[in-house]
Amino acid sequence: MSTTYTAGTYTAGGALRAYCDAFERRAEADFADLFAEDAIFDLPLHDGRIIGRQGILKEIQVALNGLKNIRVILDHVIESGSQAFAEGMLHAEHIGIPPHVDGTPMRLDFKFVAIVEVKNGKVTRWSEYFDTKPLKPRERTHLYPISRRSPYWDGAVAAGVSEFMVYNHTYFPLIYHHSPSEEYTALTERVTLWDVGCERQTELRGPDAVKFAQYLTTRDLSKLKAGDCKYTLVCDPDGRIICDPVLLHPMKDVIWLSHGDADLTLWARGIALHGDFDVAVCEPDVAPLQIQGPKALEMLRDLVQAPLDELGFYKCTLTKVAGIDAVVSRTGWSGGLGYEVFPLSSSRAMELWNSLIAAGEPHGLMVTGPNVFRAVEKNVTDTAYHSNSDMNPYEAGHGRLVDLEKGDFIGRQALQQVAREGAKRKTVGLLIDGELPLLEWYWPITDRRGNPGEVRWAVHSFELKQNIAIAIADASLEVGDKVTIRHQAGSSEATVTSLPFV
Predict the structure, then answer these.
(1) What is the pTM of this model?
(2) 305-325 pLDDT, tens digit each
(3) What is the enclosing helix (H) or strand (E) of 473?
(4) Could you say which architecture CATH assigns to the domain 12-129?
(5) d(CA 391, CA 414)
(6) How many whole angstroms separate alpha carbon 447 and alpha carbon 240?
(7) At a CB cut-off of 8 Å and minimum separation 6, what does 47 contact?
(8) Which fold has domain 200-286+384-414?
(9) β-strands 192-195, 366-367: how paired?
(10) Model confidence over 410-439: pLDDT tens digits?
(11) Options 3.30.750.24, 3.40.50.720, 3.30.365.10, 3.30.1360.120; which CATH number does 153-198+287-375 get?
């Protein structure tokens, strides 16, 4: 479509064409004058009818943020009085969903029927009808019994999970039947629920629990009190990061290392067996959930026995959630307000899940996977030994998490040498020109002096409206420098920037 309509009053047919024209141009501002204050909006992909101009404009904004290269073709427009009817085709490409493996864009193409009603020159009702099959896959990926399931499996399936990754030998729900734009909006404006049952705990229990954690991790825990949490690192003797867990001290003589994708329990247990520590190491039956987003506190306030308003950042409390014994921490992987719930047993896992779903409904809760788009914007990543095995804390930008003066710990000698000599690489942000394929493995980069590096995270930034990446590169790189990224679709140019992006 190419016609531009002047804001004002509309006939039914004029409103229909103006809407489609603005949608094709991704012109969000042009919709404001189109709808009546109490207009009704019916969409087959929305859970319920949207009533009111502001809600309609928000829904349109979310849709446009997830699409590009839009074409809207109208056929058979029939207008009768205050109503108009049309058949049409929408052609578009998804934003935030990587291309297919062969490089072709992930498209959104479907036929639709639209009905519009106007009164006093404004749209009072807009209804669309289309087959959603090409938009949202109906079948989840096939799984195999060699990996564990989270105890919240049934809840994730009911919520429409379609893709998983294996994390700590556990299936981790990542992709649901939403667009990336919908999930990003839910996280940044409402509240989201994540099944992170794969986020396993390495439990240290006994009189020497804190002492042993002091030896295993890089941070000084000498002042740690029950109820404290810390973000820390576990390194090997060569100073290479094994993982970057959140350490929780939920009760006396108990430490949990809530870790990423690494066999940390086996590592810690082997060290404890041959060390002089009065401590037992195990993986307890604790499968956490994350509740993340600005309405997380409102959602949980009446469900959690402890007063969450008093729970500080990186603090935890032993309490009850929906009557179930649990630890609640003010932590998470979103870079914003959020909480993690650690039930002390999985025996009532689905009871807890369903209680959270019910509590979140009034606040617009959406079940999602961890939102990598927002995490990368906020420089919230994780580190796993087998996929980052040659990176030390100073290269990862985590030098502040290394307390060399606290006494002996695993990797201290190697990290003292890195601190003396300076890291040869560093972690930087990249603002990328143009499109990117799917990051299936790290992409090599080269700066203008020929120094090598690697892109390790790459996503579309919905806030910056461009592609961004986090890379490890030569320590000489400065903000504003240019690099070339080589990937399976060719190459892209990028500019070095500071972290976090937003």
Answers:
(1) 0.93
(2) 999 999 999 999 999 999 999
(3) strand 466-474
(4) Roll (3.10)
(5) 12
(6) 24
(7) none
(8) Alpha-Beta Plaits (3.30.70)
(9) parallel
(10) 999 999 999 999 999 999 999 998 888 889
(11) 3.30.1360.120
